[in-house]
Amino acid sequence: MISFLESHSFFSYDLGLVQYISKLECDVKPVRLAILGLGTVGGGALKLLKENAAEIKRRTGREIQITYVGTRRPRPDLDLGDEVKQSADLLDIVRQPDVDVVVEVMGGIHPAYEVIKEAILHGKQVVTANKALLAEHGNELFKLADDNAVQIAYEAAVAGGIPIIKVMREGLAANKINWLAGIINGTGNFILTEMREKGRAFADVLKEAQELGYAEADPTFDVEGIDAAHKLTILASCAFGIPLQFDKVYTEGISKITAQDVKYAEELGFRIKHLGIARRAANGIELRVHPTLIPAEELIANVNGVKNAVLVQAHAVGPTLYYGAGAGAGPTASAVVADVIDIVRDISYTEDGAGTIPQLAFEALTNVPILSREEMTTGYYIRINAEDQTGVLADVTTILSRAGISIDAIMQQPRLKDLIPIVILTDPVVESKMDEALAQIQALPVIHGEIVRIRLESLDN
Ligand code: HSE
Predict the structure, then answer these.
(1) Which annotated residues bind NADPH (predicted)?
(2) Is the pTM of this model over 0.85?
């Protein structure tokens, strides 16, 4: 077994003996954590730190001690031990001298925002799973952390147990990222999967996701794409070095997806997935979250249930796919505790305790603009309900052709309630052109009901 001295021997090259001994004394002291929030993630992190304590200590060289738990709802089911102090006064906890690292797993913007700011101002390192907070206030918080020489670690904020932040900052660090497309909301994927495979009703599946602890406190965040937009904001900042720009993400949820379109998409060889997409285009960056038809044979099309996956297209390595559980106690705690371990290593092994976790860009590293929805380019699935009259198809295809929209496939379905459903797949087109063409088609007297439009991605370049 490697002794503690051996494992730390590189310090003797870098530091004088006195510095080395004082470093060693500091290193052997436990690192003290305050865990704020005792819900699914907080409970999971406590359990993981306890059950894997020996292995974690071996990997970090230091003991991790939980000194405080901050919660308004104590959990008698969790064995905290006698040394852990419990309090509902979160601001007081983060000011305490026997706290080195604050682990914020409460979720929600307030009071997490105030508590994290106070922690940073008191020189505490921060680990957070709070995607909403980072997406909406991250530019300010990362700047504050930088000014106060502490780090904010955020692996658990995106895709639960998949270490996608580490992938971006380490594994793919040599690459230019061209685009990424992710299933980054487990609840939404769970609902779409159950609807497709078992024909279950939307509300029934959502209720189950809530009971299993996957869904957000406000489940509209899951089904309307807001949670995915928070995560995409963070991923895009990692990928492109742009500031966090949640307000510029085009966001559409899954609540309007019908069993009829799921079925027609399958007949055409596609699956409908709710994707977060960040893409470097010629004239800017696209940030978009929406239901998307993708070829059924793609690996990511076969990611089912609550699982998440992120497909990254990078210039040197090409496409790589990361898959795993995107929500739940164990997977999210795995990411939280990995961040704690990173910080413990930084505190212990860097000469000045400086961080090695790259912080998100709080200032523009690039002037690339974020494109508006009208400027984005995607393929399309269009479904129209038309009267069964001669020339309908010709009228529709003429409008598309005049708009310069290339048709990839057309499928006419059997009559439904006196109308003929017609499904058209198009090649990629700028959305403003599609808006104009669909407005003209919608105005044809033979077209009934609202035209259904779902974006389509071939994911092949
Ligand atoms: N509500 C989120 C999801 C939890 O379903 O993915 C994990 O961020």
Answers:
(1) 131
(2) yes
